[in-house]
Specification:
Helices cover about 80% and strands about 0% of the residues. The termini are close together. The longest helix is centred in the first third of the chain and has 28 residues. The chain is mostly helical.
C-alpha cells in the first residue's frame, strides 16, 4: 500500500514538473507573440491552435467518436469548466500584462496554487493540514522574492481594477483545477472540449471588444508554441498530475514555474542573474520538499 502511494506521488511529481517546464514559457511566448496582437486576439489564435492540436491527437487515436457521444449535460459541464480555466484565466492574465506592471501581475497570478490548497478541502474532501498551508506560503514567498528582486516595496498596485481581474482569473483557474479533478472523462477528450469553449468565447470577445487581425509572421512561432505546448499539451499533463496525487500535494510544486521563467528570461533575453534569485529558489524548493513528505 505504501509503495503504491509512493508511486502515485512520483507520477504526480513527474507530470506537474513537466507542466512547470512548459508553463514557465508563458512570459516568453506572451512577449514574442503580442508584438501586434492584443490579449483577445492572442488568446483566440492560441486557443484555436490548442483545440486543433488536441482534436488532431484525438483523431489519430481514434477517439473522435467519444466526443460525439458526450451527453449534452457532459458537454455543457466541460464547456463551463473550459470557460473558467482556458478562457477567463488567460483573458485576464493577458489583460494584466498589457495594462499593469508585469511584476505585480506575476505575483497575483501565482495565487492560484494557494487557492487550490484552500478549495481542495471543501470541494474535494481532502484533509487540509498546517503543512499544506505552510508549503504553499513558502512557495509564494519564494515567488514574491524572485519577482520583487528582494525589494518588497517595489510591488505596488499600478492598476487596482486590472489586478483584481487577474486575481479573479487566478481563482477561476484554481476552481477549474479542483472541479476538473472530479471529471471522469478521459483528459484528452475533456481538454479538447475545454479549448473548444475557449476558442469560441475568445473569438466572440475578439470581434466584440477588439477586431479581427491576422498574426505577423514573427508571431506565428510563439502562437504555435503557446497553443501546442504551453496550453494544449500541458493541460493533459496537469490533469494526469491531479489524478495521480491529491490537489493539495500537487499545487505547491507550481511555485517553481516563475523561478524557471526567470531562468528562461536570463538565457533567452540575457537578463542578469542576481543572488536574491537563489534565495527565492531555496524557498520554493523548501516548500516543495515540505509538501512532498508523507502526502498523497
Amino acid at each position: 500500500m505504501k509503495n503504491n502511494a509512493n508511486q502515485s506521488r512520483l507520477k504526480a511529481s513527474f507530470w506537474v514538473l513537466l507542466c512547470v517546464a512548459l508553463w514557465a514559457l508563458i512570459p516568453v511566448v506572451s512577449k514574442l507573440g503580442q508584438e501586434s496582437l492584443d490579449n483577445h486576439q492572442f488568446l483566440f489564435w492560441s486557443s484555436m491552435v490548442s483545440f486543433g492540436t488536441l482534436i488532431t491527437a484525438a483523431g489519430a487515436r481514434g477517439r473522435l467518436r467519444e466526443i460525439r457521444e458526450l451527453r449534452p449535460q457532459e458537454f455543457l459541464k466541460l464547456g463551463i469548466l473550459g470557460l473558467l480555466g482556458t478562457y477567463i484565466y488567460y483573458l485576464f492574465l493577458y489583460l494584466g500584462y498589457a495594462r499593469a506592471e508585469g511584476m505585480e501581475v506575476l505575483v497575483i497570478q501565482y495565487t492560484w496554487p494557494f487557492f487550490i490548497v484552500i478549495l481542495s478541502a471543501p470541494l474535494l474532501g481532502e484533509h487540509l493540514t498546517i503543512k499544506n498551508i505552510a508549503a504553499a506560503l513558502l512557495g509564494f514567498s519564494g515567488v514574491l522574492l524572485v519577482l520583487s528582486k528582494g525589494s518588497f516595496g517595489s510591488v505596488r498596485l499600478s492598476d487596482g481594477r486590472t489586478i483584481a481581474l487577474v486575481l479573479l482569473g487566478a481563482f477561476c483557474f484554481a476552481l477549474f483545477s479542483v472541479l476538473g479533478k472530479k471529471i471522469s472523462i478521459d483528459p484528452l477528450i475533456a481538454t479538447a472540449v475545454y479549448f473548444f469553449a475557449a476558442m469560441i468565447a475568445s473569438g466572440v470577445s475578439m470581434l466584440v471588444f477588439s477586431g479581427w487581425k491576422v498574426p505577423l509572421r514573427s508571431e506565428l512561432l510563439p502562437i504555435l508554441l503557446n497553443g501546442i505546448l504551453v496550453n494544449g499539451v500541458s493541460y493533459l499533463f496537469w490533469f494526469f498530475a491531479l489524478r495521480a496525487g491529491s490537489a493539495s500535494y500537487v499545487a505547491p510544486f507550481v511555485y517553481l514555474t516563475p523561478v524557471v521563467s526567470a531562468v528562461y528570461l536570463i538565457l533567452l533575453f540575457k537578463q542578469p542573474f542576481i543572488p536574491v534569485y537563489a534565495a527565492g529558489i531555496g524557498l520554493v524548493l523548501a516548500g516543495g520538499l515540505l509538501n512532498s513528505i508523507g502526502n498523497g
